[in-house]
Amino acid sequence: MNATPLIGVLGGMGPLATVDFLHKVVASTPASRDQDHVPMLVWNVPQIPDRQKALAGAGESPLPAMRHGIERLNQSGATRIVIACNTAHLWADALAEASAAPLIHIADAAIAAVERQGKPGGPIGIVATRGTLDSGMYQKRLAAKGLLFLTNTGEEIDALFTPGCYAIKQNRLDEGGALLESAARRLVERGARALILACTEVPVGLAHARSDLLPISVDPTQALADACIQYWLETRPA
After folding, report:
1. E-assigned strands of 70-208?
2. pLDDT reported for residue 119
3. Residue 26: its H or E element
4. What is the band of 2 on the pLDDT scale with cuts at 50, 70, 90?
5. What secondary structure, in 3-state letters, does 64-77 show?
6. Does the pLDDT value for residue 145 go beyond 60?
7. Strand order of the sheet with strand 149-151?
8. CB-CB neighbours of 29 under 10 Å
9. Looking at the structure, do residues 169 and 159 belong to the same domain, yes or no?
10. What domain range includes position 116?
11. pTM score > 0.90 for this model?
12. Taking residues 99-105, what's their average pLDDT?
């Protein structure tokens, strides 16, 4: 007998981004009653070491703490695992090896959303942490689809993106939203015709700022939520 579908969410990176993901799953699920919604287990433990600092060589590896969360989700019966953080996916291979339940990769979900929307007629701007950009996680996937892309300069990351990201984590949403929108707008000014908000704090910040960039943006958090919903709809008991 197949196990009942159950999404395991490795969260806490950051806590507000995890809540944003959970809200998007619930808000986007076609449901007429409680029982129609996606069953989820959530490991929203923020004490996982900072991913950006670890990649910069200024902090401990988050992998042991993330692996512990994966183990707890597996022990609790998760049949699929999702990670509500883009940068954490730099350790996705190691986490997948430690998990009996397959991982749904946030970048794969996001690129699928880009394809559903159709080619934007120009480069796609990637708004992301330095670690995510250095990994090429999104650039490689876009290039494989024949899509052009733009990224922020190092100076823009240091002056706009990184402080904006940490402001969101510190619940300073006005400041964080303004900084992250400025980072995204720099890409549009250089010719981006669409954006991938490839850090889970960015959709939170732009939504708080009521940014006019949201209509041209792909939200990987929403794309991951949609992938979870699709899995549930395809596998739930009759």
Report:
1. 80-83, 124-127, 149-151, 194-197
2. 84
3. helix 15-28
4. low
5. HHHHHHHHHHHHCC
6. yes
7. 149-151, 124-127, 194-197, 217-218
8. 16
9. yes
10. 107-220
11. yes
12. 98
Give the pair of three-digit tokens for residue 26. 């619930």
Looking at the domain assignment, is residue 2 inside a domain?
no
Sheet arrangement for strand 40-43: 40-43, 7-10, 80-83
Give yes or no: 85 in active site: yes
Give pLDDT tens digits for 190-225.
Answer: 999 999 999 999 999 999 999 999 999 999 999 999
Active-site residue, from 85, 110, 196, 202: 85
Sequence-distant (6+) residues with CB within 8 A of 64 are none
Residues 211, 111 within the same domain: yes
**Catalytic residue among 199, 206, 209, 218, which?**
199
Residues of the chain with pLDDT > 90, as a percent, come to 96
- Kindly compute the dihedral angle of the four CA atoms of residues 60, 141, 138, 208, in this order, to the nearest 10 degrees: -130
Q: Looking at the structure, do residues 39 and 131 belong to the same domain, yes or no?
A: no
Strand, coil or helix: 150: strand
Kindly compute the dihedral angle of the four CA atoms of residues 72, 99, 10, 26, in this order, to the nearest 10 degrees: -100
Is 1 a member of any domain? no
- Could you tell me the CATH number of the domain that includes residue 66? 3.40.50.1860
Q: Retrieve residue 194's tokens.
A: 């669409």
Q: Among this protein's residues, is 199 annotated catalytic?
A: yes
State mean pLDDT over 4-25: 97
Between the CA of residue 28 and those of 83, 196, 230, what are the distances in Å? 18, 19, 11
Query: Residue 1: its pLDDT value, please?
Result: 37
Closest-CA residue to 38 (of 104, 113, 114): 104
Specify the amino acid at residue 9.
V
